[in-house]
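=== Structure Prediction Worksheet ===
Name of assembly: unnamed complex
Input type: mixed (protein and possibly other molecules)
Chain count: two
Listed entries:
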Amino acid sequence: MATLLTAGTAAPDFRLHVTPDQQLSLSELRGRPVVLAFYPADWSPVCGDQMALYNEILPEFQKFNAEVLGISVDGVWCHEAFAKDHKLHFPLMADFEPKGAVARAYGAYREEDGVCERALFVIDARGQIAWSYCSPIAINPGADGILDALEKLPKQEG
Amino acid sequence: MTQLKVPVGPADHIEGDESARCTLVEYGDYECPHCAAAYPIVKRLQKHFGKKLRFVYRNFPLSQMHPHAESAAETAEFAASKGKFQEMHDLLFENQEQLGSGLYAKLAEDLGLDAKELQEALRAKMYQAHVRSDFTGGVRSGVNGTPTFFINGERYDDSFDYPTLMGAITAAIGESA
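=== Predicted Assembly ===
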């Protein structure tokens, strides 16, 4: 396993495609917490896979005003088809070119398989990593750790 | 180890004895094919372990994926309010292919319940809060898909085929002896 960036580190900024004609930077989301969920691949053959689960739990994340971003090395068209099929209501980012560059910056790239780890980051409103966790690749980490971390963030003003 | 955050209590549908040495909690979705596959396995485990095993079913409807999951869960909760949870739970899994208002009405009648009252309860979302509370409790406990099982309060991450699950329960019973 790669060594994950840990709490207290500034979250490396990135700019990636979220749709075929749209890009998003992490820094654009400053001012609210971000849940960054690296995962190995779209289309894993299970019901309630990690992204589908977060889609169901989205209202819980929104209670913390948090933005959820899924990220894998799949390309934009793959993400688009996957998101449409699973009716996902949050963006999937394509860490596609150069492949896995963002995952590498976060210590969340799995060299031997050429995919992202199942690595979770909660980034606070100032862009600092507040919590990170890497799950064994076969185990969907769920959302309890993310929600615990969001709960521990200092309350936002306003 | 990921732990069950909401202890088994009066709001739960419990099958089996409080003194059972093992409590198996399932978070399930009536429209999920994997839960339907797990259903006869749990039945077999209950038969095998008898009084040593207590079974608790909680709702975890993946509504974005399964359009009937929420209404089926609320139908089971309606039946629970009439003392017929187990019967309805079983029938919903046995008729998973036909989930929908027509089936709910038929099953209610088969169980001697008032189908009109059920329809009204679903329309008024009377049992939505119970289902939602199961769901959020599951999220906080690390439920990561359906079915997710907890054995004596610990999330079970292994396969739920009969021999594997039976082995894990046997071990849990041994530890609590």
